[in-house]
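Q: You know discrete backbone vocabularies at least as well as I do. I have my own habits and do not want them to colour yours. No explanation is needed for now; the record alone will do.
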Amino acid sequence: MANVLVVDDSALSRRTSRRILEAAGHTVTEAADGLAALERYAVSRPDVVLLDVTMAGMDGLEVLAQLRAMDPAARVVMATADVQTSTRTLSAAGGAVGFVVKPLTTDAVVRAVDAALAAEGAAP
């Protein structure tokens, strides 16, 4: 299975994501903000990043841009309660390979992570 970095400023969302992903057999690392996410990514190079869009300080779209600059092959799934089309468009334009809407459901998260793992050039 995969190593997944969960990035969210909400402890509840991180716990929910961890529970879903570990039940699906994945290993989970957490980061509570954008800077911690970039540091953890640089050190561990996870297979997939599940990244919240709306965070204090550095938002998810900024983190996405920096992750893709660091590693153009980074597989990032964006997670948000914001269901605006513009958010999806900006995420896709920034290189996100998936998108899940909060509140997170087991099916949506597992499907998005599996699709990210199967994305072009993906080899965990």
Remarks:
- The mean pLDDT is 94.
